[in-house]
Amino acid sequence: MWGSTIGCIVTLILSLLTVPLTSTAQQTAKVPRLGLLIPGSSSAYAPSIEAFGHGLRDLGYVEGRNIAIEYRYAEGKVERFPDLAAELVRLKVDVIVAAGPAIRAARQATTTIPIVMAVSGNPVGDGLVASLARPGGNITGLSMMIPEVSGKRLALLQEAVPTLSHVAVLWNPAVLGSTVAFKETQTAAQALGLQLQSLEARSPDEFDQAFATMTREHADALVVISNELFFGHHRQLAELTGRHRLPAMFHLREYAEAGGLMAYGANAQDMYRRAATYVDKILKGAKPADLPVEQPMKFELVINLKAAKALGITMPPSILFQADEVLQ
Length: 328
Fold this sequence. Notes:
single chain, alpha/beta, Rossmann fold, 12 strands
């Protein structure tokens, strides 16, 4: 009888010990930590970061509950990328999400932590991945196919302004993908019979001088080569095109919304939202090397009619028909 009683007591004690241990184990389950390495400022990238958050929530992740995020903003200063990337590596984040030139900084900081490209230009040509189908290494994500659409942007601009002959091109040769995109624009210009004027700007401090040169050389219009560092100053660029009365083609809708004439390209917010799916797959065990790089299935044309009116441009019906959105 005593043996039976002692056995019951032991069983009870063990059961009482097991419950808190199980509860504690559940409470201390590792919460994955992401590192977001953003080229610009928090204000400029707020819509994209919000879209990324929506993508995570759609997949069941809630920041502060079952996922943690470390935000690092370079504020448009390239020299800050290496230190910010190294800081995320020291924090031992599970995944780094980066955009534009920040991707290379992340890659130089780690070859083991998975890196998701939220927005990239030409990842194969830039040597970031081995191929789109099989990236290899620790990088995968999304490409904007920037070089491939450079010619299309120039053709749309010519359709909107049939009289143009001299087009200025503003670009940053220090940014990944820009050289290829510029060469694609040159090829398109030759086919369309247009003269190009190359103007380089490695920082916003060089914008005013570039626009002064365009005006002095009597440029008829402007094409801005896709550039994550420029994006943090998209309102400034759009304002400069209005001040100098230059019809301009950009790559993201935000430029047209800020007052630029036209924009043609992939939707950046949608790409950030899609980047969350890569994070989810990696956290569930997938290897970046085996996840194909995704390319946008759709490009959007956004036209600002208010800007057109200020420039004295009457948009042809043919191009308005192609527009995904016309801003009044």
